[in-house]
TrEMBL record:
One GO cellular component term: cytosol
Source organism superkingdom: Bacteria
Biological process annotations from GO: carbohydrate metabolic process; glycoprotein catabolic process
InterPro entries named in the record: 6-hairpin_glycosidase_sf (IPR008928), GH-type_carb-bd (IPR014718), GH92_a_mannosidase_put (IPR005887), GH92_N (IPR041371), Glyco_hydro_92 (IPR012939), PNGase (IPR050883)
Residue ranges of every copy of the Glycosyl hydrolase family 92 N-terminal domain listed in the record: 31-266
Keyword terms, alphabetized: Calcium, Hydrolase
Quaternary context: Monomer.
Needed co-factor(s): Ca(2+)
Domain Glycosyl hydrolase family, residue spans: 272-755
Organism of derivation: Maribellus comscasis
Pfam families named among the record's database cross-references: Glyco_hydro_92 (PF07971), Glyco_hydro_92N (PF17678)
Name of the protein described by the UniProt record: Glycoside hydrolase family 92 protein
Molecular function in Gene Ontology: carbohydrate binding; peptide-N4-(N-acetyl-beta-glucosaminyl)asparagine amidase activity
Length: 779
């Protein structure tokens, strides 16, 4: 069966599933293709998962090198087995815990190499015999003639293996397996009975001190079993421990005999893994669990309904729906459930806690996701947004600091830059997403912004904070990525200011608003770009603005001066003033998009280049929307369509860069609807160019005053990308932005499109989105 299932619109219209807002609705899950992003540098995984689920059950084809951070790459033709934890679009390898592999013939306990799969338990496979959908994956293992099928509940994986006739059929559990062999710390495994195996894996890599526990149950008692340690196979052994260990079970199978395995996962204990399994998958009905997974996805994806514009181009419409709903699917995978069914979880203090009245989450890749993925959750899954913030506050309570900006498992990582928990918290609070202690949240974000952690906690808090407070910038001779950190801290300070103002803390508001202007301290008037400055206030020389750099010469985060200068989302007007006014600002932006794409000393993340604009990496994601602030919104409209048409599509290479835990896809979801949150925390959406003829966002009435928000696009097509005029609730809208309150209260936004730009729409200074200058003028 081919990966990309072409389903006619007539068939889709006849498929029904229970949804949270209709008794009958289209089968949105059929538009999802999890293979998108598995090729090139997308780093996605094709296996089975649920929205925000703990388990992501997926095949592993490789565990080393950058393009195998998700464990799978489309270029491979053999696989090692099916493991239970994966991350989508990460640039760091980890996870891949608890791998199962069905085999026949001789028992082999090493995976073997891609060059010679026969030396281990690997099997060749073909994409033509691989099927993927939302919550389900299957593949034929050619070397064993075994069909493997996978589905999931939130905290458990469900395997169904169909064997050929064999007197030497096996299922292997590799307890030491993981993405990046060097991260292994140790494992244990125990065969409890002829239908149950339990164990634990410890690793230390990108996630520090990660412990994963599992309980595996088999539908058919095995006739024999054993363990291995390194390459030492131990028939009849019932338990083992070490770095390279596992267990195998033996069967005699008849032709097309099905054997199923259920695997519960927990981060707290084996007993909790067993509880998760027994609670979520008590029986042996694989098809029912698969159906539930599809229904769960249908309800989640159906929060946004789209209608495509090209009535006579069914292929285009199908590709657009696949691209959109797969992007929404990827956006909703994370942050992930971390607590067990009874609320237990391992905290950042290493102790077991119980989440009361919320789900404790993990995997806040906030350097990436604060930009679009977290704001998207406020629209379609506000309760998960509340869970995320309550999780951050629990982490503050137990670990003393908010994660800055990333947290995975029960570890601070601080692998990336900025202090972006405050962006997610301020954005949710400003939008009225209640359900957390705002005063406690402010206490947490203020501590991150004001206090330097002790030396033993260097992975917490803002790196280089003392220099930032003393000088108003980070000097490049003291801190790596100094320019990027300065720019992002200034935005973070603005976010703190917004929260302070909302809570009536006027003195703090003024303090942090002053600090929000610190971005100006790294703007070089000579070049018109953000430039490194040393401790004495001297600009870096010589200066190459296309240089990305490594090590101590890495002054920008996965970017260069041309790409990072524009990261002043809270004060775009201030940046316009710095560049000498609107005309000069537009000219500078034009240069960004038209200059040579050659990058000096680049890194793999800098992809999706249009000139020096790099859509494959997050620092650029808001940049094309800045024309709206300078009176040339038609250029934003043109470029938004160009990126959506050229850099997103429905093939395995349909992403131009790392998915990065949902951010790459969330950019597309929001942009394709016609708007983008340039400065989360501001309650403002900046208008681009909608791709569809109609969009209906179904809102959660626990958090919104209306059941839906509608966008209608008149005369839309592939060629008609320019807004001619706009209406909101039948009133003319000439501004290039609207407020979150407009969505919250429901209503209809209408765009009239055309093939030529209307250069007068949204061009007046009063039509531009707000920034710090507007905010100060209102004081």
């Amino acid at each position: 069966m081919k990966i990309h299932k072409i389903i006619s619109l007539a068939i889709v219209a006849n498929l029904t599933v229970t949804s949270c807002f209709k008794t009958e609705s289209p089968d949105y899950a059929d538009y999802v293709d999890p293979m998108i992003g598995t090729d090139f540098h997308g780093h996605t995984f094709p296996g089975a998962a649920l929205p925000g689920g703990m388990v992501q059950l997926s095949p592993d084809t490789g565990t080393e090198d950058w393009d195998w951070c998700s464990g799978y790459h489309y270029s491979d033709i053999s696989l090692m087995g099916f493991s239970h934890l994966h991350r989508s679009g990460m640039g760091a390898g980890d996870w891949g815990d608890v791998l199962l592999m069905p085999t026949t013939g001789e028992v082999k306990v090493i995976p073997g190499s891609k060059e010679n799969p026969d030396e281990g338990y690997r099997s060749r496979f073909s994409h033509e015999e691989e099927t993927t959908s939302a919550g389900y994956y299957s593949v034929l293992l050619k070397d064993y003639a075994v069909k493997a099928e996978l589905t999931v509940s939130t905290r458990a994986g469900f395997h169904r293996y169909t064997f050929p006739k064999s007197d030497a059929a096996h299922i292997i559990i590799d307890a030491g397996h993981g993405i990046r062999e060097r991260y292994r710390q140790g494992s244990e495994i125990k065969i409890v009975s002829d239908t149950e195996i339990v164990g634990h894996r410890s690793s230390h890599g990108f996630v520090k001190h990660k412990n994963v526990y599992f309980c595996a149950r088999f539908s058919k008692p095995f006739k024999a079993s054993g363990t291995w340690n390194e390459e030492n196979i131990k028939p009849d052994s019932a338990e083992d421990e070490g770095k390279y260990i596992g267990a195998f079970v033996d069967y005699e199978t008849t032709e097309n005999e099905t054997i199923e395995v259920k695997v519960g996962i927990s981060y707290t204990s084996i007993e909790q893994a067993r509880l998760n399994l027994d609670t979520e998958i008590p029986g042996w009905n694989f098809d029912e669990i698969k159906k539930r997974a599809s229904q769960t996805w249908n309800a989640a994806l159906g929060k946004i309904e789209i209608e495509t514009p090209e009535a006579n181009d069914k292929t285009y419409n199908q590709n657009k729906k696949t691209t959109f709903y797969t992007a929404l699917y990827h956006s909703l995978l994370f942050p992930a459930t971390f607590s067990d069914v009874d609320g237990k979880y391992i905290g950042l203090d290493g102790q077991v806690h119980t989440a009361e009245d919320f789900t404790y989450l993990s995997d806040f890749s906030l350097w990436d996701t604060h930009r679009a993925e977290m704001p998207l959750l406020t629209l379609v899954e506000p309760q998960r947004n509340v869970n995320a913030i309550r999780t951050m506050l629990a982490q503050f309570e137990q670990g003393g600091w908010l994660p800055t900006p990333q947290q995975f498992g029960n570890s601070y990582t601080n692998d990336m830059i900025g202090d972006h928990p405050v962006a997610a918290i301020a954005d949710a609070f400003q939008k009225g997403i209640a359900g957390f202690d705002a005063e406690e949240a402010y206490k947490a974000v203020r501590k991150n912004a004001m206090e330097t952690p002790p030396a033993e906690h260097r992975s917490r808090g803002r790196i280089g904070l003392n220099d930032y407070l003393e000088k108003g910038y980070l000097p490049y001779d003291k801190v790596r990525e100094s320019v990027s950190r300065t720019l992002e801290y200034a935005y973070n300070d603005w976010c703190v200011a917004q929260l302070a103002k909302a809570l009536g803390k006027e003195d703090d508001y003024k303090l942090f608003m002053q600090r929000a202007a610190n971005y100006k301290n790294v703007l070089d008037p000579e070049t018109g770009l953000a430039r490194p400055k040393d401790s004495e206030g001297n600009w870096l020389a010589p200066f190459n603005p296309t240089f990305v750099g490594h090590g101590d010469e890495r002054h920008y985060t996965e970017a260069n001066a041309w790409q990072y200068t524009w990261f002043v989302p809270h004060d775009v007007q201030g940046l316009i003033d710095f560049e000498g006014g609107r005309k000069n600002f537009i000219s500078k932006l034009d240069t960004l998009f038209t200059m040579s794409s050659e990058v000096q000393e680049t890194v793999s993340d800098v992809t999706g280049l249009i000139g020096q604009y790099a859509h494959g990496n997050e620092p650029s994601h808001h940049t094309l929307y800045l024309y709206d602030y300078a009176g040339a919104p038609w250029k934003t409209q043109e470029l938004a369509r160009k990126v959506m048409e050229e850099l997103y599509h429905s093939g395995p290479d349909g992403l131009c860069g790392n998915e990065d835990m949902g951010q790459m896809s969330a950019w597309y979801v929001l942009s394709s609807m016609g708007f983008y949150p340039v400065a989360p925390g501001q309650n403002v959406y900046v208008i681009g160019s909608p791709e569809f003829s109609k969009v209906t966002v179904h809102l959660d009435e626990d958090y919104y005053n209306s059941p839906e928000f509608t966008i209608k696009i008149v005369n839309n097509s592939k060629d008609n990308c320019y807004i001619q005029k706009a209406l909101f609730n039948d009133n003319p809208l000439n501004k290039t932005w609207f407020k979150h309150e407009d969505i919250k209260d429901g209503g209809t936004l209408v765009f009239q499109m055309g093939p030529e730009p209307n250069k007068s729409w949204g061009a007046n200074p009063g039509d531009a989105p707000p920034s710090i200058k507007n905010e100060w003028s209102n004081q």
